Amino acid sequence: MKDTIKIVIFGLVFFAGLVYLTAPEPPVKKEDLHEVLSTKNFKEKILLANESEISKKDLFKENEKSLIIIGNHDSLSVVSLFDSLYDVSIPVVIVANVSAAPWFIKEWVLTEKLLALSELSSSKMVYDKDGEFVKALNLRSAHKQEFIVYRVDKTGLIKRVYRGFVKKDAIDGSMSKKEIKEALLPIVSYIK
Q: Is the pTM of this model over 0.90?
């Protein structure tokens, strides 16, 4: 009798977990999208990879152009090398789009990994734990191998300028230095 109850409870928990993990994302409502992409859409305080906070005014200085590069998983490991491979003349903000990761991954693994990746770069790395940063850019999802580049002008207006991809398992070293440079090369034209 006890074994049967255990099996039933385990089955219910397993089924509930399966439903939760495979449920589709809710549709994006038109009223949730920003008409104009601007630094004004971001929260006043933004979480960095080292889990400290920075004000958006310090991250995006007035009258200064900058780039935002959003990476997720494999692409994040590649874009974090951008300023070490190329001469970058404007500030670059790298965003770790990890809001879709399971909570236990965020709590146990991601913080360590993001710290290691942020040490490879002199750019600020935003830890978008809750997804608010990418929502402010009207971005609702990103593929593991995809990175997206936005350009911020001197007035704070933001424009999406490039979408690139990296090889599968780039986070585990599947790309050579040459392949990494080639994947990031198109971004260079946007830093002028």
A: no
Q: Which two tokens stand for residue 22?
A: 């495979």
Q: How many CB atoms lie within 10 A of CB 79?
A: 30
pLDDT in tens, 96-148: 887 767 666 666 666 777 777 777 788 888 888 888 888 888 887 677 889 99
Neighbours of 133 (CB within 10 A): 25
CB 87 within 8 A of CB 114: no
Dmax (CA) of the chain:
72
Cβ-contact 98, 124 below 8 angstroms: no
48-51: long-range pairs with CB below 8 Å, 24+? 48/118, 48/124, 48/125, 48/126, 48/127, 49/96, 49/111, 49/114, 49/115, 49/117, 49/118, 49/125, 49/126, 49/127, 50/115, 50/118, 51/111, 51/127
CATH number for the region 28-190 comes to 3.40.30.10
> Considering the chain, what is the average pLDDT of its residues?
82
Alpha-carbon span 188 to 185, nearest angstrom: 6
Quote the DSSP letter at residue 61: -
pLDDT digits (tens, 9 = 90+) for 9-45: 888 888 777 666 665 555 445 445 667 888 998 899 9
The single-letter code of the amino acid at 135 is K
